[in-house]
Amino acid sequence: MTAERPGLPTAADHLARLIEYSETLHAHPETAWQEHRAARWTAELLAEFGFTVTTGYLGFPTAVHASYGSGGRRVGFIVEYDALPGLGHACGHNLIAAMSSGAAIALRPWAAALDLRIDVIGTPAEEGGGGKIEMLDAGAFTDLDLALMAHPGPVDAPRAEPYAVAHDHVRFTGHTAHAAAYPHEGRNANDAFVISQVAVGLLRQQLPPATRVHGIQTVGGAAPNAIPGVTEGRWYTRAETLAELAPLRRRVRQCFEAGALATDTALEFTPESQPYSEFRTDERALEIYQAHARDLGRRFDAPVEHQTMNRASTDLGNVSQLVPAIHPYIGLDCFPVSNHQPDFAAVCVGAAADRTLADGATLLARTAHTYFTSPPA
């Protein structure tokens, strides 16, 4: 961190505790809807600093709500703490949790003067589960005047421009048979998956440029001499907006229906969550964030092709449609190492991570401070 501007909140006084919290989350990754220890550690951290804490918030076992102050205006710092299957904290949610919690802690002395209630909302299942969308449906977030979080990435990219995304589980059910002795008795569920992937590949020629279709096969069969009776996979479809996503997802589903038809298997194409929305940025809050970031020595001049983590989908997009929000990406200065790689998990602890944590927490706190100090133009 560079020299601090007098009178503005900083997380530096509590940095050692925040690093400990971040490193603990990193060492014990938990996937979507299973973040029981992460939720408990988050609740314990905030209780230490005088927050009133509710666990199992709104009936979600791994959601947390913490508040400080009783002002008429409400700022929410959003915590994510789920990890990726097989990759741990390769998206840096341990740092998201620590930055948001640290910002809320740093802002406490200004709560009364700014007429604020400071909320920290711990949200499960961002990595494909749509936890914030379910929480939004249950009544979370909507009383906030501003929602903030910062996401680690390889470089700074302040404006979130995520794709809208649909997450679908795919299952083909056929009939097993001996592949040499009785192949005519089988209905090959793996062939269904192959045909579907070929159809998706051919569909790409007709896709608009700003779309993405990708996925994995998670179950492919048990033995080479047994025709697979069941295959499964997970498939993501992305577009610029929810409106553009719906017809694209229909065409992707038709590719899987073609695989089922060709192989005489049964298809189950099941949403894993509600679709994630595109993001609506609060321009004034983003301008304030960028000004404070420059004061701290953060730079926004990385090549555009290095900044594309800001296209990653997030369920905070759905929240941003109803609540003023920002979702800047704060860099670990590690490109070409980037999110969802094992090497990125490695850089989410250590000296670079500690600097990013301190800067991110300070910037979120200062953004909120200025936002509620300075009236809109």
Automatic annotation (TrEMBL):
Cross-referenced InterPro entries: Amidohydrolase, Bact_exopeptidase_dim_dom, Peptidase_M20, Peptidase_M20/M20A_hydrolases, Peptidase_M20_dimer, Xaa-Arg_dipeptidase
GO MF annotation list: dipeptidase activity; para-aminobenzoyl-glutamate hydrolase activity
Top-level taxon in the UniProt lineage: Bacteria
GO cellular component: cytoplasm
Keywords for the protein's UniProt record, in alphabetical order: Hydrolase
Coiled coil: none
Domain Peptidase M20 dimerisation, first and last residues per copy: 169-260
GO aspect biological process, one term: folic acid catabolic process
Family as reported in the entry's similarity comment: Belongs to the peptidase M20A family.
Name of the protein: Peptidase M20 domain-containing protein 2
Protein's organism: Murinocardiopsis flavida
Lineage: Bacteria, Bacillati, Actinomycetota, Actinomycetes, Streptosporangiales
